[in-house]
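Action item from last week, closing it out:
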Amino acid sequence: MVTTSSADTATSDAPDLFQSESEALEKARAIRADAGADAQRYRHALGELIGHYERLMRETRRLIGRSDRAEREMHALTQQLQYRATHDALTDVLNRSAVIERASKALRTDCAVMVLLDIDEFKKVNDDYGHPAGDTVILGIVDCLRRIVGSKGIIGRVGGEEFTVVLPGYELEEALALAETMRASIENHVFGAPVTRRITSSFGVSANSLGTSFDTAYGLADAALYKAKRSGRNRVEFTGGECVPRDAHEG
């Protein structure tokens, strides 16, 4: 006794998408095998085959076009998801996990200066003007950082009002000067209504040799930031060692 599986039944019941093409092909084969077939029958069979072939070509092109569009859309979606996974939703700078990854990679290949900054008395901004105004302040500070740092460093938002700037290969004096420029830029920035008070930030800087872990570099910068807060805010403080670029060692 021969049994038929449900899968076989489903396959046999499924419509043949190429039934008309198959019938035209079988008809052409029969005419070709008929030694007595005349030219008219040959032309008719050939015409049917040409028509079906042209239809298949059109359908193939259409399907390939759809497939290409779907592939492009999937690629764009993948890039968008990757971007969202590594960037802060409000500011479009790197998020905490991406900063850790990028900074760790930088420290594995060269020395790096880590700059940690925190908006002074940011809670008062939210309390006095509301959270939308607080978001505007955050965006304004990120604009200041971008103008000064540009492509020279890695900018990330690691907390609500806390940011990290990683400067690979920077010497300490140069990095401290850049941090002071950031601090002054934020202090002098006009944030606009409804924020009427001056906004300042405190900075902690650590210089880290090649091979330093992210946790160590961040911990040193955080200690310096805490010192800046205790010393009156709106200032740059430093703790840590020296950042001697790899090129200097090689020279």
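Closing note: The first helix runs from residue 6 to 13.
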